[in-house]
Specification:
This protein has 217 residues and is an alpha/beta fold. It has six helices and 14 strands. The strands form three sheets. Strands 1-2-3-4-5-6 form a six-stranded mixed beta sheet, with helices on one face. The chain has a six-stranded mixed beta sheet with strand order 7-8-9-10-13-14. The longest helix has 13 residues.
Length: 217
């Protein structure tokens, strides 16, 4: 069964997740570590828990989710997996990163692409890849069925949804991703969001004002 540790990194308070199982193998999702102290924290944690990282995964290519990619890929020599549309987003992030004092010097590009239906395997764990555009064109989410865990990046938040006003965003597409891909998951599914607290599919189905139409967009 997987264990999940979250870190809150960079000025966007982005959530970076380290996920591992009983074999000691794991993955890192959306490394937003930027300051040296954040990098050190991650290194210390991985060493302390004796985790063997297998993959670097990105939900999408916004700067706050990818700013630590170069460091993580080099530090642990990991294959990087993301959706193919992330390439353009990484190129864009390289152009605007300095505006947030998060200049990317040499951001890595994916070694392998994932899309709807892909499976990512490490240890005894299987991540199912869901394609969930609407916040960003490249956006994928990771679902782990055995523990009913969803890593939803910036698609679904506790009582909220991701921004749709950024390049590649579209609110109709975003709501359709949530309705078609996420809400059919078991209600007890724990949702690990790219910002803010965790939630569950059942809670969001009942209470999320965007999903229930109380908040019209
Ligand atoms: Zn984003």
């Amino acid at each position: 069964m997987i264990v999940v540790q979250s870190f809150t990194f960079n000025l966007f308070e982005e959530k970076t997740f380290v996920v591992w199982d009983e074999t000691g193998e794991g993955v890192i999702i959306d490394p937003g570590c930027h300051a040296q102290s954040e990098r050190d924290k991650l290194i210390r944690f991985i060493e302390e828990k004796k985790i063997t990282l297998r993959f670097l995964l990105n939900t999408h290519g916004h700067i706050d989710h990818i700013v630590g990619n170069e460091f993580v890929k080099k530090q642990w020599n990991l294959p990087f997996i993301a959706h193919k549309f992330i390439v353009k987003e990484i190129e864009k992030a390289k152009e605007y990163g300095h505006l947030y004092e998060m200049a990317l010097s040499n951001p890595p590009f994916p070694d392998e692409y994932a899309d709807a239906g892909s499976k990512i395997l490490f240890g005894n764990t299987v991540f199912d890849v869901l394609y969930t555009p609407g916040h960003a064109l490249s956006h994928i989410s990771f679902y782990e069925a055995a523990s009913k865990s969803l890593f939803s990046g910036d698609v679904l938040f506790q009582m909220g949804i991701g921004r749709w006003d950024l390049p590649g965003g579209n609110v109709e597409v975003l709501l359709e991703s949530i309705r078609a891909q996420l809400l059919p998951l078991p209600p007890e599914t724990v949702v690990y969001c790219g910002h803010g607290d965790t939630t569950t599919i059942g809670l969001e189905k009942r209470m999320n004002p965007y999903i229930n139409g109380y908040y019209s967009v």
